[in-house]
Amino acid sequence: MWPDRRENGAFVVIFFLTRFMLIQATQLRVGMVIESNGLLWRVAAVEHITPGNWRGMVQARLRNVKTGAHTENRFRSEERVERVTLDQARWSFSIGTAMTSTS
User: Fold this and answer.
1) Which residue, of 48, 56, 72, 92, has the fewest CB within 10 Å?
2) What's the Cα-to-Cα distance from 70 to each of 1, 61, 67, 86, rounded to whole Å?
3) What domain range is 49 assigned to?
4) How far apart are CA 23 and CA 97, in angstroms?
5) Whole-angstrom Cα distance, residue 61 to residue 50?
6) At 35, phi and psi to the nearest 5?
């Protein structure tokens, strides 16, 4: 479970993190969520670069899921990155009772 909660009145939205699989950098697509350097990033743009005699690389523009900060990152074509999925659940609560899911 990813411990990010956003309170909205009597409701709390909780995001659940599921580690999905390791994929090659060449399989990155816009909209995917990956884990890199211990942080969650949403892929905003992907470009596969093959500069002449050098090895190919994937240049990705990433957006931090939590803070919204952008970064550019280069991955070797054969490098593997961890793809994750985020599930969202809305929970209601009141003082003195247990939390219940509304989704």
Assistant:
1) 72
2) 24, 7, 9, 19
3) 5-101
4) 43
5) 17
6) -110, 125
Q: How many domains does the chain have?
A: 1
Q: Is the Cβ–Cβ distance between 100 and 88 less than 8 Å?
A: no
CATH number at residue 59: 2.30.30.30
Query: Which burial class, exposed, middle or buried, applies to 7 when counting CB atoms under 10 A from its CB (0-12, 13-18, 19+)?
Result: exposed
Task: Identify any residues that bridge with 85 across adjacent strands, giving them in sequence order.
Answer: 18
Total-model pTM = 0.67
End-to-end CA distance of the chain: 17
Q: Looking at this protein, which amino acid is placed at residue 63?
A: R
Tens of pLDDT along 10-59?
555 556 666 678 999 999 999 999 998 888 899 999 999 988 888 899 99
